[in-house]
Prior knowledge:
By secondary structure, this protein is of the alpha/beta class. The protein has 13 helices and 12 strands. Strand 9 (167-172), helix 6 and strand 10 form a beta-alpha-beta unit. Helix 3 (100-106) crosses helix 13 (282-297). The protein starts with a helix and ends with a helix.
Amino acid sequence: MHAFWDHTMVFLTSLSMKSKKFFSRTISGPSWSRHLEGVRLSQPRQEAPDQFLLPMQTLAGPVDPAYKIIQWKGAVFPTLIFHHGHSEAAFDFSAQANNTFKNMFLWKQAPVEANWIVIRAPYHNDSLLHYLEHMVELSHYMAMLVGSVWTMEHVVQECRQKKNEKIYLAGVGMGGSAVNLHRTLYNSATAYIPLLAGAALAEVFVTGAYRRLTGSLALEYPDSVRQLLNFEEAFQGVKGTPVFPLLARFDRVINWERQKQGYMPESLQSIRKGHMTALMAPDLLRQHVLRAMQITAAA
């Protein structure tokens, strides 16, 4: 059942991609650290009440990450900064919206005594086609995640300036990888909570179910993709900041056997779900995030 839902999701996604497969045009570009060094922030602007756009120039061109303050109860409360998954509508909390944060925390759930801030990745403020048009180049994919990581750090420092001490970064799927990347490049949060994600990011595209969505160039030269996207070694080299990963045992998108290698065995939690069936069980994801926040609350 779990594999069925994962492969069905990938098949339906492939119908909308047509020739716009991941990395079908180029598989070259700068490293993660060089991408980060190349970020140049333009003038931030307010898009809506408690919603802010951070336009920036990257080595792959302009990107448009943003963040939205969903709930601010005060600096004495912990802050959860959450990053959405692949092609999700980060700021759409309507009933029909594809939004994991909404399902975990806003829809028929008991209130949480915490500040909530949601990140919107670059290329996610328009149609799915707009997003896919950029994903044909590997450097655009990396610039997207670096834009999100830079935005996370901006929000972390904003919270620090308000004397907010407990700051947690959580994300699902692509957002979980962005959370791990932030720990690798900045390591400034209290704790990290990646959901259904790892640090061997290339494997999602060259060995996982997303192979069906990946261009032939990347599949022909998988080691070139691995050299740029995988950051396991750097991630494992970061010490001191706790990580609370959650993987799904039957996930066909984020392979459990492969991605667990990037985490300390004692820190990893696993659930008997696939990728899609885990997303269909937001209560499990929510419980994991709240448990991680509780564990570090008194530290």
